[in-house]
Write a structure and sequence with these properties.
Elements (H helix, E strand, L loop, with lengths): L1 E5 L3 H12 L3 E5 L3 H8 L10 H10 L3 E4 L2 H7 L2 E4 L14 H13 L4 E5 L7 H11 L5 E5 L9 H6 L3 E6 L2 H11 L5 E5 L1 H30 L5 H9 L20 H14 L5 H25 L6 E5 L14 H11 L3 E5 L4 H7 L4 E2 L3 H4 L5 E4 L11 H7 L4 E4 L6 H6 L3 E3 L4
Parallel strand pairs: 1-2, 1-4, 2-3, 4-5, 5-6, 7-8, 9-10, 9-12, 10-11, 12-13, 13-14
Antiparallel strand pairs: 6-7
The chain binds uridine-5'-diphosphate-glucuronic acid (UGA).
The site of uridine-5'-diphosphate-glucuronic acid (UGA) has 20 residues, from helix 9.
Length: 427
């Protein structure tokens, strides 16, 4: 099948490379000439495990192409995916300006009937708008399919190729079937539904996962006031298959380009329809509080933080990505900086991106060098390289042996036995 993917961000590039790997001819389109030139040279704009190799292989095998020529890509393809960004607008709703620009371009360059697949995260009802906007510019038949993406940064390729489910929403059965056929090689459930439900499934899923995280974080807050350990509680809850064990990790808050934005957007959709999505307001409130916790815990322990040397482990919003969007590290470091702390931050991949947002702090590549004379260590992102540290060695170098484990990844008893003051979240 000949496919065009418009937008080479996370979703577009991963989808394009994966569809090519499944044997389709895929043309990825972007307005950014530099990005396209780099992609042709195998230079990937984001850090995503496995993506570089997949792009290189399929580009060399001539199944994956990159261009800025949207006219050519549209004319040559039967199925066109829209995978451009839907940034948050001032009122919290997803901004559809890039989606609508793409619709106009598609409409103006349609040379036959096409299937337009919306992969961008868009509010309920957008499918109809896409149909109407494209149809303003063409006489050809336009079938719109909503096909939300559920991949996670850091495991995007794997998530795409081994999905829990694929959701396809369309008013046209044939169009839905054509898109479903693209996913047939993947061994997963394909749910075909109406476009509005498909659009809603995306927001509802992200909002639910964010709710699960804030829920366990509230349980953690109560655990701290008792003898309970939230890790044991989450395990016990998660063993109930109705609850499930994923996304029950208490910590210093969720970030990224999706949960914060989507939780706001679905509230805005609801509000516009005359309904207040109250739970989600609390979900956001809890998440904001979680981001403030490491600083609160440190102040409780150290008092005035002025001149105190604090080492921050992990900057990216989660492990295996260089993405700093809404990362908890930003709030934490800004708070420490305001209190006059002397900060050294370490991240295996996100350091350069972090420097743009947090220029006033020191950065290092070595945990063991950084901890010399440190008053405390805060784990913010649970990168693998931070999990197996030699805490005996670290403890000997530190001025005071305090550790804030913002992701509950360390063995609290072991650290205590090494003389550390261990401050986890809810344990
Ligand atoms: C999320 C969803 O998981 C994907 O299914 C969805 O496709 C994507 O958003 C999207 O809409 O594009 P992502 O933002 O890449 O994916 O990252 P997640 O793995 O979901 O983590 C989000 C945040 O939640 C991270 O900051 C992570 O540290 C935090 N988190 C996650 C917790 O605090 N506790 C947990 O138990 C799980």
């Amino acid at each position: 099948m000949k496919i065009a993917v418009i937008g080479t961000g996370y979703v577009g590039l991963v989808a394009g490379a994966c569809f090519a790997d499944l044997g389709n001819k895929v043309i990825c389109v972007d307005v950014d000439e530099n990005k396209i030139k780099n992609l042709e040279k195998g230079i990937i704009p984001i850090y995503e495990p496995g993506l570089k190799e997949l792009v290189k292989k399929n580009f060399e095998d001539k199944r994956l192409f990159f261009t800025t020529d949207s006219k050519k890509a549209i004319e040559e393809s039967k199925i066109i995916f829209i995978a451009v960004g839907t940034p948050q607008s001032d009122d919290g709703q997803a901004d559809l300006k890039y989606v609508m620009q793409v619709c106009e371009t598609i409409g103006k360059n349609m040379n036959e009937s096409k299937i337009i697949v919306d992969k961008s995260t868009v509010p309920v009802g957008t499918s109809k708008k896409v149909q109407e906007t494209i149809s303003k510019f063409t006489e050809h038949k336009v079938d719109v399919v909503s096909n939300p993406e559920f991949l996670r940064e850091g495991s995007a390729v794997n998530d795409f190729l081994k999905p829990d489910r694929v959701v396809i929403g369309s008013a046209d059965k044939e169009a839905a079937k054509s898109v479903a056929d693209l996913y047939k090689p993947l061994d997963c459930e394909i749910l075909i539904t109406d476009p509005e439900s498909a659009e809603m499934i995306k927001y509802a899923s992200n909002a639910f996962l964010a709710t699960k995280i804030s829920f366990i974080n509230e349980i953690a807050a109560i655990c701290e006031k008792t003898n309970a350990d939230v890790e044991a509680v989450a395990k016990g809850m998660g063993l109930d298959s109705r609850i499930g064990k994923q996304f029950l990790n208490a910590g210093c808050g969720y970030g990224g380009s999706c949960f914060p934005k989507d939780v706001q957007a679905i509230q805005k959709t609801a509000r516009d329809l005359g309904y207040e999505f109250d739970i989600l307001r609390e979900v956001e409130k809890v998440n904001k509080y979680q981001k403030s916790l490491p600083l609160k815990k440190l102040e409780n322990e150290l008092g005035n933080l002025k001149g105190k040397k604090i080492v921050v482990l992990g900057l990216a919003f989660k492990a295996n990505t260089d993405d700093m969007r809404e990362a908890s590290s930003i709030e934490i470091i800004k708070g420490l900086h305001e209190k006059g702390a002397d900060i050294i931050a370490i991240d295996p991949i996100a350091k350069e991106n972090a420097k743009q947002l947090l220029p006033k702090i020191n950065y290092s590549d070595s945990v063991y060098d950084s901890v010399k004379g440190a008053d405390a260590l805060i784990l913010v992102t649970d990168w693998n390289e931070f999990l197996e540290l030699d805490f005996e060695k670290i403890g000997k170098e530190m001025n005071s042996k305090i550790i804030v484990d913002g992701r509950n990844v360390y063995d609290k008893e072991k650290l205590k036995s090494l003389g550390f003051k261990y401050l986890g979240i809810g344990r």
